[in-house]
């Protein structure tokens, strides 16, 4: 390697997570000029750049804005600093001793020695191939986010008559977007008995436009040789298998898929981070440090969030954590966290019991629940509980652990988050 | 112009035949119905270089398979095509099946297959730790291998085109006439006719139809659909050999195999399709569940959970159960290749050589080209280079420093080279088959629009005129308002 640079902190990914993490590291004493953000797209902003609908920032800024506006607040903050930014730059791999190998047209391939690394690569969409959809493989089947980029960034229509499979938020947003652009959205099919998207999106994107949402229903076959000509949809049973006799044909030229997001963990896997099979992101402590010393992760690469506001908050934690690590922190003593009784996972998965601040634990539930209590216990002792009128898999939840509770625990203790009768 | 030779069909056999004939001073044209090389059976099959014990003694299948298998390594090396001699295992699950594999072993001896061995359950487990505990033993054929079938066809076509063979796309033959020693090939659309003094009909599934169009000669061919599931590269290591179950009357059964690109491939089914559905490569509803259930009998850990894509191909099965390679009735200047199904891929280098010799026997030996290159320009595969090589490549062309496909680490430079190559890519799937951009776990979700932009630039066509794979497969429509 002929070119090697040195930075205190390398942030992989210049979306909302990466920008917030870099800024927070600077706020916590890392010199701005010793921080670099590497972004694979042509500019900072990440996926927000194509999210031109409103609904961002209500929690963090207390005002509603579009994705590019939300991103722009952080881009401007980054631009005011001496934080280095490299766009159109791909990180090829990370080494055991925290060296980042990256490549771009201007600088070629080079290495950066980092004291700490923050992974903020975001997530990607599950493709068609991951699903058992029969039929042909014509043009006109694409991920909803890819279609969103064609419409909102490139300015092209990906189709005219659309069926959307999956009621994730991007699918819902694109149902409205395609309708506003003059396309006919025939329906949204959701294989689960409930939508995976936010309630507000179901109302504002489907109901307001009379787009039907078929629950427990999926696309079982794609038709068309060169371009999609239609799909066969069918209802599914509780094992999610198609029910014979419920098949119906819908004519369309486009199928958009919104069937789940997967953390973009090529690099995490490449350096062998300990992964959580449920979130499909790395396991982290409360400062978002992974199993590899000095490597942190935040945002959608860690767990897929519903709201960018929470991405920002989580990334600030990671930025602060990386700064503390670079300054040299005491060896942590860990207690673990886990979800049971309908709580699918928790982030973080472990907490330093000596952490002096309140720790927020994020989680998602496995099903739709009404009138329940969320309870946190440790060694059989209840630490926190709250009544919830409704819990749904599409809405990320959180609980809090107080430092005084942590202080009383022993290393190796287990914090359990569960759903109990109200 | 009247060509000396017209080869119909740019599958693996047609393309390798074009490459073989390109060494002579002949004007040769390679004619393809679709927009690209390897769009039919050559695109969607198991990619197995069979050892050659399946075919009955004395058949063309036996002869060409064993010979082709021996030629494959060198062919792939010359063309820079991924190939690996990984060996195959036919696994037996009962005493009756153990008898069956002994029969295969003896048949293999009759076909002159080298390096076979019947192994017991313990040895099998040693070779393949993930094999089912129910397995009793296996026939191990060490000469078998795996090859990327579409890359073999692409490499051969690129070699042929680089040596002066003309490649004509989108020429769907509607009629063939013969007068005064000249064949006239008419396209279904009204593009210009092609004339040639010699025709090689290697049109795969369409070959029987072409033969009939020429002189009414009938061949009985059935299309057989084979469906597959492809698993993520994270599954690499589930098996290292190609693992068959005992063959049956519909073919070699469901296999589990690594691919040359470190995925795991599971399939194929084997379903006879009606003759009017010969171009419908749809995967049937519920097919993958059946295929994986059968595959799990030999390798229990394979699962649709790890699937990144599914696909189907159709192979041309002759009711004679053998390859038919012979001149047309009453015209020895028109050679038919009918029923080239498995082991057609394994046989392809040997078939090409055989057809080359047939042609020479008939027309006399033409002069050799002095500058013939049996290979092609070595493609730069960025992900496989050492750090020093990467730096050197980038120093020459910075486009190799821009990664377009994250999953497979494919650079802008590789994509541009694939478009510029002789018989190069003209659409998104063409780029994908040549470079692997879009072949990974996100299946083009991230790189799709970037590949479109590069194609648009290289071909000088607006982005919304770029197709997925020819025909009416445009990816995006008009501008938004």
* Shape summary of chain A: globular
* Poorly predicted sequence stretches spanning 5 or more consecutive residues of chain A: none
What is the strand content of chain A?
35-45%
The CATH architecture of the largest domain in chain A: 3-Layer(bba) Sandwich
The structural domain count of chain B equals 3
The number of distinct helices of chain B, counting runs of at least 4 residues, comes to 12
At CATH level 2, the architecture of the largest domain in chain B is 2-Layer Sandwich
CATH superfamily of the largest domain in chain A: FAD/NAD(P)-binding domain
Question: Radius of gyration of chain B in whole Å, from Cα?
Answer: 22 Å
Q: Mind summarizing the main beta sheet of chain A?
A: 7 strands, mixed
Characteristic key phrases:
heterodimer; A: about 425 residues; alpha/beta; FAD/NAD(P)-binding domain; five-stranded parallel beta sheet; 8 helices; 28 strands; B: alpha/beta; D-Amino Acid Oxidase, Chain A, domain 2; Arc Repressor Mutant, subunit A; 3 domains; five-stranded antiparallel beta sheet; 12 helices; about 30% helix
């Amino acid at each position: 390697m002929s070119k090697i640079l040195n930075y205190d902190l390398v942030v992989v990914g210049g979306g909302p997570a990466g920008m917030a993490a870099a800024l927070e590291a600077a706020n916590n004493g890392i010199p701005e000029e010793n921080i670099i953000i590497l972004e694979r797209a042509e500019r900072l902003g990440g996926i927000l750049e194509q999210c031109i609908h409103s609904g961002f920032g209500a929690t963090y800024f207390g005002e509603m804005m579009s994705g590019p506006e939300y991103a722009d607040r952080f881009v401007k903050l980054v631009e005011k600093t001496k934080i280095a930014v490299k766009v159109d730059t791909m990180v090829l791999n990370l080494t055991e001793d925290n060296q980042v190998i990256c490549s771009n047209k201007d600088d070629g391939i080079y290495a950066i020695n980092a004291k700490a690394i923050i992974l903020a690569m975001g997530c990607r969409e599950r493709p068609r191939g991951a699903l058992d959809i029969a039929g042909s493989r014509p043009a006109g089947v694409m991920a909803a986010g890819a279609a969103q980029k064609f419409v909102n960034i490139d300015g092209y229509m990906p189709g005219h008559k659309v069926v959307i499979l999956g009621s994730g938020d991007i699918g819902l947003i694109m149902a409205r977007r395609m309708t506003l652009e003059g396309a006919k959205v025939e329906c949204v099919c959701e294989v689960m008995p409930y939508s995976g998207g936010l309630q507000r999106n179901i109302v504002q994107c489907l109901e307001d436009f009379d787009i039907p949402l078929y629950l427990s229903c999926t696309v079982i076959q794609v038709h068309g040789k060169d371009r999609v000509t239609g799909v066969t949809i069918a209802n599914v049973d509780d094992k999610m298998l198609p029910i014979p006799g419920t098949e119906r044909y819908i004519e369309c030229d486009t199928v958009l898929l919104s069937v789940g997001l997967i953390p973009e963990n090529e690099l995490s896997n490449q350096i062998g981070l300990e992964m959580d099979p449920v979130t499909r992101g790395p396991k982290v402590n409360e400062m978002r440090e992974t199993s590899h010393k000095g490597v942190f992760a935040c945002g959608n690469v860690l767990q897929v969030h519903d709201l960018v506001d929470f991405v920002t908050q989580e990334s600030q934690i990671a930025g602060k954590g990386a700064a503390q690590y670079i300054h040299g922190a005491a060896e942590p003593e860990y207690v673990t966290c886990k979800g049971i009784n309908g709580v699918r996972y928790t982030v973080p998965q472990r907490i330093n019991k000596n952490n002096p601040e309140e720790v927020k634990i994020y989680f998602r539930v496995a099903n739709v629940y009404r009138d329940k209590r969320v309870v946190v216990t440790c060694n059989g002792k209840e630490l926190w509980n709250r009544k919830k009128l409704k819990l749904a898999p599409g809405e990320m939840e959180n609980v809090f652990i107080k430092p005084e509770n942590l202080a009383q625990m022993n290393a190796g203790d287990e914090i359990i988050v569960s759903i109990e009768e109200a | 112009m009247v060509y000396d030779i017209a080869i119909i069909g740019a599958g693996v056999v047609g393309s390798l035949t074009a490459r073989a004939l390109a060494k002579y001073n002949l004007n040769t044209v390679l004619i393809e119905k679709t927009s690209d090389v390897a769009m039919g059976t050559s695109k969607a099959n198991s990619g197995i270089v069979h050892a050659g014990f399946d075919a009955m003694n004395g058949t063309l299948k036996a002869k060409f398979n064993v010979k082709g298998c021996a030629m494959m390594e060198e062919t792939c090396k010359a063309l820079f095509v991924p190939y690996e001699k990984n060996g195959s295992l036919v696994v037996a699950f009962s005493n009756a099946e153990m008898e069956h594999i002994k029969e295969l072993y003896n048949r293999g001896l009759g076909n002159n297959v080298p390096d076979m061995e019947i192994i017991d359950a313990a040895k099998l487990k040693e070779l393949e730790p993930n094999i089912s505990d129910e397995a009793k033993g296996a026939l191990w054929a060490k000469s078998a291998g795996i090859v990327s079938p579409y890359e073999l066809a692409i490499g051969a076509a690129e070699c042929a085109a680089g040596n002066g063979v003309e490649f004509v796309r989108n020429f769907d033959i509607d009629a063939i006439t013969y007068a005064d020693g000249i064949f006239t090939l008419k396209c279904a659309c009204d593009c210009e006719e092609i004339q040639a003094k010699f025709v090689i009909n290697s049109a795969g599934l369409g070959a029987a139809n072409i033969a009939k169009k020429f002189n009414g000669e009938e061949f009985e061919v059935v299309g057989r659909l084979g469906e597959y599931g492809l698993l993520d590269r994270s599954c690499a290591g589930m098996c290292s050999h190609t693992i068959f179950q005992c063959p049956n009357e519909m073919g070699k059964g469901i296999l589990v195999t690594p691919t040359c690109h470190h995925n795991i491939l599971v399939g194929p089914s084997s379903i006879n399709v009606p003759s009017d559905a010969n171009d419908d490569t749809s995967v049937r509803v519920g097919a993958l569940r059946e295929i994986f259930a059968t595959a799990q009998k030999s390798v229990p850990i394979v699962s649709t959970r790890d699937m990144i894509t599914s696909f189907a191909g159709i192979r041309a099965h002759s009711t004679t159960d053998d390859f038919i390679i012979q001149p047309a009735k009453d015209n020895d200047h028109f050679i038919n290749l009918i029923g080239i199904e498995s082991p057609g891929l394994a046989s392809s280098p040997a078939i090409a050589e055989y057809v080359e010799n047939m042609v020479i026997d008939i027309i006399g030996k033409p002069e050799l080209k002095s500058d013939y290159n049996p290979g092609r320009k070595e493609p730069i595969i960025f992900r496989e280079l050492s750090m020093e090589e990467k730096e050197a490549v980038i120093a020459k062309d910075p486009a190799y420093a821009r990664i377009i496909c994250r999953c497979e680490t494919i650079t802008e430079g590789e994509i541009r080279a694939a478009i510029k190559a002789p018989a190069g890519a003209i659409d998104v799937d063409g780029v994908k088959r040549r470079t692997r951009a879009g072949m990974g776990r996100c299946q083009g979700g991230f790189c799709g629009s970037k590949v479109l932009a590069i194609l648009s630039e290289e071909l000088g066509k607006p982005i919304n005129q770029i197709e997925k794979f020819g025909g009416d497969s445009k990816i995006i429509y008009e501008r938004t308002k």
